[in-house]
Amino acid sequence: MADWERTLETLVRDRGPALVRYAYLLTGDRAAAEDLVQDAVVATFVRRGQLRETAAAESYVRRTILTTFVDGTRRGRRFRDVRHLLVRSDSHEGPERGVQERADVVAALADLPPRVRACVVLRFYEDLTIAEIARALTLSDGAVKRYLSDGTRTLERTLGPVQDDVETHVVGGPGRAR
């Protein structure tokens, strides 16, 4: 077995579920997320078959997932087709509360434009700084701040106030270089 094959096997076995969760946040659909991850893995190993470290391979795959999503080749077409199936309930009692909250977040993310959604996912799911998001998406820091501000405002209208101190993250608040 070649080194790249071992790397691929380890990546898919150990990091595959995390990659699918990451793609799911972007696409809003499990099947689309799985397709996106598969496409990203294939594209990564076709171009970079010499990869020998799982961490480097995962980094390339995550970048490919993000780029593919932002470029619009997988804009959640399937999710928009079934979004009406997610029924909002005003009653958040019982064990289904967490499931409903997750569905609400996914539905709210689906309403964001792709670049705004990517910035929000990278900030709040990947916990990247503004500078890191800007580098990942090849945007200016100011554009990232604007996208985060717009995304946060839109999400708060749908979901209510964000518990995290968004101002600290968006404008670099007191003592933090985010």
TrEMBL record:
Q: Could you list this entry's UniProt keywords, alphabetically sorted.
A: DNA-binding, Sigma factor, Transcription, Transcription regulation
Could you tell me which residue ranges the RNA polymerase sigma-70 region domain spans?
Answer: 11-78
Instruction: Give every RNA polymerase sigma factor 70 region 4 type domain span.
Output: 104-151
Q: Which InterPro entries match?
A: RNA_pol_sigma-70-like (IPR039425), RNA_pol_sigma-70_dom (IPR014284), RNA_pol_sigma70_r2 (IPR007627), RNA_pol_sigma70_r4_t2 (IPR013249), RNA_pol_sigma_r2 (IPR013325), RNA_pol_sigma_r3/r4-like (IPR013324), WH-like_DNA-bd_sf (IPR036388)
PANTHER family attached to this UniProt entry:
ECF RNA POLYMERASE SIGMA FACTOR SIGM, RNA POLYMERASE ECF-TYPE SIGMA FACTO
Q: Which family does it belong to?
A: Belongs to the sigma-70 factor family. ECF subfamily.
Give the protein's recorded name.
Answer: Sigma-70 family RNA polymerase sigma factor
Q: Which organism is it from?
A: Cellulomonas fulva
| Classification lineage | Bacteria, Bacillati, Actinomycetota, Actinomycetes, Micrococcales
